[in-house]
Amino acid sequence: MSNRFVRGFPALILATIGLWVVGVAADVDLTEAQRAAIEERIKPSGESCLQGDGACGGGAVAVVATGPRSGEEVYQAACAACHDSGVAGAPKYADAAGWVDRVAKGKAALYESGRNGLPGTGMIAKGGCVSCSDEEVDAAVDYMLVSIQ
Ligand code: HEC
User: Fold this and answer.
1) pLDDT in tens, 14-69
2) Reported pTM
3) In which band, very low, low, confident or very high, does the pLDDT at 3 lie, cut at 50, 70 and 90?
4) For ligand 1, is residue 102 a contact (CB within 6 Å)?
5) Is 81 in the pocket of ligand 1 (CB under 6 A)?
6) 117: CA distance to ligand 1 center in Å?
7) Centre of ligand 1 from the C-alpha of residue 59, in Å
8) Which tens digit of pLDDT belongs to each residue from 108-123?
9) pLDDT at res. 112
10) Domain spans of the chain, in order of start
11) Is the distance from CB of 104 to CB of 96 less than 8 angstroms?
12) Any atom of ligand 1 within 6 Å of the Cβ of 90
């Protein structure tokens, strides 16, 4: 007998016993009343709300990402807090004058700033959005640049 078999054997026996116990339990005959009682007990779980369907009555629910977020979505979630109002001198959305010097650096430099931040300023890497991919941050930069065209 190989070592692996010797070690696996007790587990195999336990698994077999477990299956047998489950099998026996499943065989138990229920009366109509018992069956109805069980159905009643498990019913609420089928009627419970799903996150995000509005039935929970809760507030904002985390959006389950189904693909890359759009520039606008990322902007609203991670950039607007500073770039809407110009916190700490952030160039404002749709404020062409505020962006002139920055646009002059070229788009690649602005993507770089979005992804990695500008050291020593309020512009932190990805605006602090740790779940944002580099491409999503680029899209948010594009979204701001389109606003000043
Ligand atoms: C906590 C505030 C804050 C958040 C959040 C923030 N920014 Fe900024 N951002 C700034 C500030 C402040 C500056 C100006 C920095 C400077 O040059 O002094 C700036 C500048 C920039 C620039 C110009 C960089 C350059 O090289 O001139 C870009 C591009 C930018 N932000 C993109 C973004 C994007 C994209 C997001 C969201 C993913 C974001 N920012 C979120 C504060 C913020």
Assistant:
1) 777 766 666 555 566 778 887 777 777 766 555 555 555 555 555 555 656 578 99
2) 0.67
3) low
4) yes
5) yes
6) 7
7) 28
8) 999 999 999 999 999 9
9) 98
10) 3-47, 71-146
11) no
12) yes
Nearest CA to ligand 1 atom 7: 123
**Torsion angle, CA of 102/89/75/99, rounded to 10 degrees?**
-30
Any residues with CB less than 8 A from the CB of 111 and at least 6 apart, and which? 137, 138, 141
**Atom in ligand 1 nearest the alpha carbon of residue 128:** 5
Amino acid at 106: G
* The pLDDT of residue 37: 77
CA 111, CA 22: separation in Å to the nearest integer? 58
> Largest Cα–Cα distance of the chain, in whole Å?
80
Q: Do 110 and 103 contact (CB within 8 A), yes or no?
A: yes
Of 73, 76, 82, which is best to mutate to test ligand 1, by the most ligand atoms within 8 angstroms of its C-beta?
Answer: 82
Q: SS3 breakdown of the chain: % helix, strand, coil, rounded to 5? A: 60, 0, 40
Q: Into which CATH architecture does domain 71-146 fall?
A: Orthogonal Bundle (1.10)
